[in-house]
């Protein structure tokens, strides 16, 4: 006769309920995108979080017409989008550099250099849309007759 452990069904049911209660009682974890937006708000003066949708957090700042933080795209893990006048002011480059340094954890001067190169390359020879790569960041700059914008992303595999 083989020895079998003697476990009653009510004991097994109680253990399963206790395990389910412990899993459901764990504190809720905020999304990484929301955490990054809150960190940006705390470290950049004048930045406000205006609206949060599923994959986008819309931000406002006096130096930019539009500013947003995107998360979880097909080919990128996080994205910074900023739009300003056709001729960007130094405050705009400072904003993009501060936000890029916090989001992508690279030195601020590197983001200033990359974003200013991207914006300044647009013109007669290269056109109104420029894509470039700088310090493992993908930058795409576009301009119209009245506005210029920059999108900074980092690929998922980096």
Compile the SSE list and pairings.
Blueprint (H helix, E strand, L loop, with lengths): L8 H16 L7 H12 L4 E5 L3 E6 L2 E8 L4 E10 L4 H15 L3 H14 L7 E6 L2 E7 L3 E9 L3
Antiparallel strand pairs: 1-2, 2-3, 3-4, 4-7, 5-6, 6-7
Give a quick rundown of the structure.
Keywords: Signal. The chain is of the alpha+beta class and 158 residues long.
Give the tags:
158 residues; alpha+beta; 7-stranded antiparallel beta sheet; 32% strand; signal
What is the spatial order of strands in the main beta sheet?
A: 1-2-3-4-7-6-5
Helix residue percentage:
25-40%
Shape: elongated
Q: Major beta sheet, specifics?
A: 7 strands, antiparallel
Distance between the termini: 60 Å
Radius of gyration: 24 Å
How many domains, in number, for the residues?
A: 1
Helix/strand structural class: alpha+beta
Give the averaged pLDDT, no decimals.
80
Which residue ranges are poorly predicted, with pLDDT under 50 across at least 5 consecutive positions?
22-29
- Which sequence of SSEs, written as H and E, runs from N to C? HHEEEEHHEEE
Strand element count: 7
Number of helices: 4
Q: Report the sheet-strand fraction.
A: 25-35%
Signal peptide: 1-30
Keywords: Signal
What does this structure look like?
It is a single chain. About 35% of the residues lie in helices and about 30% in strands. By secondary structure, the protein is α+β, with helices and mostly antiparallel strands. The chain has one domain (about 30-155). Strand 6 and strand 7 (about 145-155) form a beta hairpin. Helix 3 (about 90-105) packs across helix 4. The protein is elongated, with a radius of gyration of 24 Å. The termini are far apart.
